[in-house]
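Pilot study result, target chain (138 residues):
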Amino acid sequence: MNTVILQIAQRFVRGLLILFATVALLRGHNHPGGGFIGGLLAGMSIVMKGFAFDIAQIRENLKVPPTGFIAIGLLTIFASFIPAILAGEEFMKGLWLVIPLPFDGEIKLGTPLLFDIGVFHAVIGVTLMFFFSLKKAE
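Predicted structure:
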């Protein structure tokens, strides 16, 4: 498209998409959302830049290719299985590490969040592969 309005607007909208993607990812293992919705939002932020600029420029600016996102996602998903196996628990059982905060409260990090992060990266990769294949067909 290469319109100036879209190029300016994408700067602001992409930031909002990344913010919403992060929120969806972090609240996903307790509420609706998670890695899939967050990955779609993050992937769409890159796709929006692809609509505003040339697709070749977007491919060059990506630090990780789409297949790399998928590989990182799958490795992270498989890594989320390991703690339960090592603990002698059921396969894919959620395990949590509770970190107490100095004042009041705690942070709970668990294998469901690790799984969601893997899905997040895999969905970004699939979204980008789909978009690049559609733009190649034009």
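One observation from the pilot: The mean pLDDT is 88. A full batch analysis is planned for the follow-on phase.
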